[in-house]
Specification:
Order of helices and strands: HHHHHHHHHHHHHHH
Radius of gyration: 24 Å
Number of strands: 0
Length: 304
């Protein structure tokens, strides 16, 4: 896989970067940067606006190459708050601009069609926009506040980014189906130019959403996973004190309970159990169930 330095670098002129692929102008806006940068470099433009340069370049790299996967070292230099700002502004763009434009195009496209065609396409697109809105709402009300709490070292709930991975749905599948319906099944009396416009808007939205999902999967989730692995922000090493919930999980493991049984007992997800077990192993330096059982007995966490 390519690394950050293989594709872009902070010393290149911002104008050259925009000329390379103008879809990057959307990234520019969504991280809080503006045009009018003259001959300034990427680093100069980002620094002037208080945007982390490594974060901006990393997002641009994903747009330029969907095969790009950041290295652990690259993730060390990004600012997760800038990633969250990009994701939030992306949501606003999708719902406030792209989806509304596509809705208007579809309405004009379907106007000469029969009631059955209108009803089917309208209902299909309405279901899609509702699914998209729910997906964004979950991220805005659950995932992003959790990440911010992690950064502020003020986590109060029992959520983990593993739960987001499990919940993370692919919001592109229905767009692909809509594209096929329009290309294949609309009557020929429909305006061909409007069909072209609708397909162009769907392709553009589909591509951007795919990159959006890649950024969540390859940047947000791995970076937050590392925050969780570090506990309260410091490097976790054997001998660090277990939290009260980790002691409960450890005791349950030592008693022979399976992950799903532990999840049911404490009303948490299996992914949360796995995260706790990973932290327990890291803190104690012990990985096997037999070893953890011995540890729990020696530390008076369970009775023989």
């Amino acid at each position: 896989m390519a690394t950050n330095g293989d594709i872009l670098h902070p010393g290149m002129k911002m104008a050259d970067l925009m000329n390379r692929d103008f879809t990057l102008s959307g990234v520019l806006e969504r991280v809080g940067l503006s045009f009018g940068f003259g001959d300034e470099t990427v680093d100069e433009v980002c620094s002037r606006s208080g945007v982390n340069t490594a974060t901006f370049l990393l997002i641009c790299n994903v747009y330029l190459s969907e095969d790009y996967t950041p290295s652990r070292e690259t993730l060390d230099h990004i600012d997760l708050r800038d990633v969250l700002r990009y994701l939030r502004l992306s949501h606003s763009y999708y719902e406030g601009t792209a989806v509304k434009a596509l809705s208007g195009t579809l309405k004009s496209l379907m106007s000469p069609c029969g009631d059955t065609y209108k009803m089917i396409i309208s209902r299909f697109f309405s279901d899609y926009t509702l699914e998209l809105s729910r997906h964004f709402e979950y991220e805005e009300t659950v995932v992003f506040p959790y990440v911010e709490a992690m950064l502020d070292k003020d986590v109060k709930d029992d959520f983990s980014i593993g739960q987001y991975e499990q919940h993370h749905s692919d919001v592109q599948e229905k767009l692909d189906d809509l594209k096929k319906l329009i290309m294949t099944y609309l009557p020929q009396e429909c305006d061909q130019q409007l069909i072209h416009t609708a397909l162009s808007e769907i392709f553009t939205l589909e591509t951007d959403l795919r990159k959006h999902t890649i950024i969540e999967d390859r940047i947000l989730i791995p970076a937050v996973n590392r925050l969780e692995d570090d506990g309260d922000g410091d490097s976790v090493s054997p001998g660090d004190k277990l939290s009260s919930r980790e002691i409960e999980i450890l005791s349950a493991v030592a008693q022979g309970l399976l992950n799903k049984e532990i999840a049911s007992k404490y009303n948490i997800s299996i992914h949360t159990v796995i995260t706790h077990r990973k932290n327990i192993a890291r803190k104690t330096g012990i990985k096997t169930i037999a070893g953890l059982t011995a540890y729990a007995i020696l530390n008076n966490l369970i009775e023989v």
